[in-house]
């Protein structure tokens, strides 16, 4: 009986720590700490229900709380804290360089978006440098100016299309996080 009391006190303490950890930030280190603290307890018996991300019913079955799901890579139930759709949507909509993808750990997509932005800005700056170093009487400046304008127009069309597409995808919750888990819907 005394052994069970210690287990309950320990689980209650870990539950309290987990609430502090999970409400502070969605940083991956804290997410892993949270999983290691709570996903290894056998609170609901054979179902291995996570005390923090779920509740046990009368028949010892786990019922996940909102924002918690069972990870396909984990044997424990309700151990994965989902990323929030609203946060990803707002990051992507207002920051525009792949911040929503970075937030959801979709680093490849975010890297492509950021690299495209940097490459385009670099190309425009190089063309401006070339144009400023050519003599004003040279007809080459007109060609560089024309190429720069075309590049800028193509960049704006592509960038706006990409931003609208990502905003729609995050807004309709079509993007999953980097672990292929659905985002917590708004």
Core attributes:
186 residues, mainly alpha, 2 domains, two-stranded antiparallel sheet, 6 helices, 4 strands, disordered N terminus
Describe the structure.
The chain has 186 residues and is mainly alpha-helical. It folds into two domains: 2-81, no CATH class; 86-171. The protein is 59% helix and 5% strand. Strands 1-2 form a two-stranded antiparallel sheet. The chain has a two-stranded antiparallel sheet with strand order 3-4. Helix 1 packs antiparallel against helix 2 (28-38), helix 3 (85-95) runs antiparallel to helix 6 and helix 5 packs antiparallel against helix 6.
Short description:
The chain has 186 residues and is mainly alpha-helical. The chain has helices at residues 2-24, 28-38, 85-95, 99-103, 107-133, 140-171, and strands spanning 54-56, 62-64, 68-69, 80-81.
List the helices and strands and how they pair.
Layout: H1 2-24, H2 28-38, E1 54-56, E2 62-64, E3 68-69, E4 80-81, H3 85-95, H4 99-103, H5 107-133, H6 140-171
Antiparallel strand pairs: 1-2, 3-4
Helix pairs in contact: 1-2, 3-6, 5-6
Secondary structure class reads mainly alpha
| Largest beta sheet: strand ordering | 1-2
Provide the domain count: 2
Largest sheet: 2 strands, antiparallel
What is the radius of gyration? 25 Å
Q: Treating each run of at least 4 consecutive H or I residues as one helix, how many helices?
A: 6
- As residue ranges, the low-confidence spans are 1-30, 32-43
The fraction of residues in strands falls at 5-15%
Shape: rod-shaped
Distance between the termini: 43 Å
Q: Please bin the fraction of helical residues.
A: 55-70%
Q: What is the ordering of alpha helices and beta strands?
A: HHEEEEHHHH
Number of strands: 4
Provide mean pLDDT, rounded. Answer: 75
């Amino acid at each position: 009986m005394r052994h069970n009391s210690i287990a309950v006190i320990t689980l209650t303490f870990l539950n309290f720590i987990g609430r502090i950890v999970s409400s502070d930030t969605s940083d991956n280190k804290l997410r892993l700490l949270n999983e290691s603290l709570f996903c290894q307890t056998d609170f609901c018996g054979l179902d291995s229900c996570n005390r923090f991300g779920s509740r046990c019913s009368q028949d010892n079955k786990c019922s996940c709380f909102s924002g918690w799901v069972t990870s396909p890579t984990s044997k424990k139930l309700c151990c994965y804290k989902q990323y929030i759709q609203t946060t990803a949507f707002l990051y992507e909509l207002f920051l525009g360089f792949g911040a929503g993808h970075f937030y959801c750990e979709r680093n490849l997509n975010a890297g492509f978006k950021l690299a495209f932005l940097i490459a385009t800005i670099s190309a425009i700056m190089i063309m401006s440098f070339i144009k400023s170093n050519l003599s004003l009487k040279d007809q080459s400046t007109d060609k560089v100016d024309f190429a720069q304008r075309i590049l800028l127009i193509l960049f704006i069309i592509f960038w706006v299309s990409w931003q609208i597409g990502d905003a729609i995808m995050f807004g309709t919750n079509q993007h999953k996080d980097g672990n292929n888990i659905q985002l917590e819907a708004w």
